[in-house]
Task: structure prediction
Amino acid sequence: MSERTEVSSLGEFGLIDHLTKNIEIHNASSILGVGDDAAVIDHFGKQTVVSNDLLIEGVHFDLMYTPLKHLGYKTVAVNVSDICAMNATPTQIVLGLAFSNRFSVEALEEFYEGVLAACNQYKVDLIGGDTSTSQKGFIISCTAIGEVAPDKFVTRKGAGKGDLLCVSGDLGAAYLGLLLLEREKQIYLENPKVQPDLEGERHIVGRILKPEARVDIVDFFTTSHVQPTAMIDVSDGLSSEILHLCRQSKLGCVLYEEKIPIAEETKLAAFKFNMDPTACALSGGEDYELLFTVKQDDYEKIASNADISVIGYMTDEEAGAHIITKGGSKHPITAQGWNAFKQG
Ligand code: ADP
Ligand code: MG
Result:
């Protein structure tokens, strides 16, 4: 049996000290961190980008199949992803937690191990937070802060007609990973003696449990002197994010199904679930890749990065947002892109 230390044995301040004692500071901009009434940051002439996300047990995560360490990592990763989507460099996070007495000191330690692993991975500093109790479940509020050279931040509304529509990494895997974990949970609930069968599904399970923020893509933009014209991170599925870019930039687009990057493992998993891999990419979500537009002049630079795919281009608003299927037919993109497209 593993040990269980009650949070009450440390008290609130003892717990905060315990959880924050291993924090390492990576940024000169973190002037004052944990331990005072507020933190102090100085971005030395750069602009500051701020974003917050709430993660609620039972709504955003299920602890039956989410290890706490992974949850800690994911908390930081999804917040850092929002900062990346602004073309900014993440520098700090502030973490508010509320948990019921079901959570022991050991459980919270595990969560913080994941948080600090992600802080090291992305070179961000945990500079503060708040700790409280909840009547039920685990509630996480994370604020991420980043820096960007003046006016280099990228919004959702700057795309121009003819700009190339691009996406990093591969899509659709996290959704299939979630389906798989949900299926194994049901099997377990019906027969707790059955061990989960996740053999050969590392990619899709990894993508849902341990997503990564694309800090490397933002670094690539800086070093290769590419200024995206619009950008968003893919948290709700490709079609929904494309529609955000179109609506806010007042444009239409053409998306080529054959250009959507989908990993081989994702295609195999989709076929096992009797699903269309493209539908998973369009409507799945939780990929945390970057969807962005660039000027056509930047094509060569973008093409030099094997981890970026050009998937379409921006058109007049009147032309609408469409997908050209592998078979060559044209369908409007809807928030559930695959609906229209399956009937078609
Ligand atoms: P206050 O009562 O002024 O809100 P707290 O006792 O809540 O102060 O916090 C003391 C210090 O610990 C602050 O610097 C705060 O930012 C930090 N802190 C509190 N909870 C957490 C947490 N869960 N993770 C990281 N830092 C925390
Ligand atoms: Mg407080």
In short: Residues 130 surround magnesium ion (ligand 2) (CB under 6 Å). The longest strand covers residues 89-99. The chain has a mean pLDDT of 94. The chain is about 35% helix and 25% strand.
